[in-house]
Amino acid sequence: MSGGLGNQMFQYALYLKLKKMGRLVKFDDVTTYKLDNARPIQLAVFGITYPRASEEEIRDITDSHMDMGSRIKRRFTGRQSLEYVEKDGCFDPEILDVRDAYLVGNFQSEKYFADIRDDVMSAFRFDPMLFSDATKDMKRRIAEESEEPVCIHVRRGDYLKADRVYGGICTEDYYRTAMKYMQEHHPGCVFYLFTDDVHWADFFVEEHSDMKVVPVTCSEAYTGYQDMYLISRCRHHIIANSTFSWWGWWLRKIRDGEVIAPAKWLNNGKCADILTDDMIRIDGRGEILGRI
């Protein structure tokens, strides 16, 4: 397991698929979460528990025992790890066929679990008991203020520090074109802005004063799942290149809406299969490329 809530959800969805296929699967939820910059593990907000691999099992499957005998053996035979790394960030069908493996990857594609959609939807049910009063109020506002609520997700924070990876994708031109498209195709729509930079949100609202934009400031880092829930309550979606808004869209209650996504997910990897056939793609120049 690795990454924030969105990545954890993709990894858990793959777990459900493998389990459905009769495989025995356990999670290593320790190795990457020892790091100082590790995100919190948040699957518990869905009431999810999962089988955890012991340190002994992890050492066995990755051939990483540090006793003298194991170290000497590796000098002669090399490391006999069963680690299998997902290929290039795209859907890798071999993942569903490998046996006795230590799987490493984000597995960011609906293709891994499209045929067990109901199981995944059931797993990722939000518990209203965890919601703040502000979240409950915003839920009512989204439901009552417009028949065409549109989510806009703008990821800033760590994305601003990694321009080589994320730069030039979800640009101002991307969002402006996407919002104009929604206005033209869904008159009377109201935009609900979700971002991890609440201070910047006022600037975004001012820059788009010709449209009705409502900043959503209900949650903080450790309660971001409440924003994901509110995203799922919108009819239409303008997502960022972020698994967080991808899942907010995928879990949507209203299924007849439209979704706009960036034409490219990352600058340093393909990740092409995270885009689905029903997504309208717009590139960083603001050009509408249409559906796949």
Structural features, described:
- The chain has 2 domains: 5-122, no CATH class; 132-290, Rossmann fold.
- Helix content is 34%, strand content 12%.
- The chain has helices spanning 5-20, 55-62, 68-77, 117-123, 133-145, 163-166, 172-185, 198-207, 225-232, 243-250; strands at residues 83-85, 102-104, 149-154, 190-195, 213-216, 236-238, 259-262, 279-282, 288-290.
- The strands form 2 sheets. The chain has a 7-stranded mixed β-sheet with strand order 5-4-3-6-7-8-9. Strands 1-2 form a two-stranded parallel sheet.
- Helix 8 (198-207) links the parallel strand 4 and strand 5 (213-216).
- The mean pLDDT is 93.
Can you lay out the helices and strands and say which pair or pack?
Layout: H1 5-20, H2 55-62, H3 68-77, E1 83-85, E2 102-104, H4 117-123, H5 133-145, E3 149-154, H6 163-166, H7 172-185, E4 190-195, H8 198-207, E5 213-216, H9 225-232, E6 236-238, H10 243-250, E7 259-262, E8 279-282, E9 288-290
Parallel strand pairs: 1-2, 3-4, 3-6, 4-5, 6-7, 7-8
Antiparallel strand pairs: 8-9
Helix pairs in contact: 1-10, 9-10
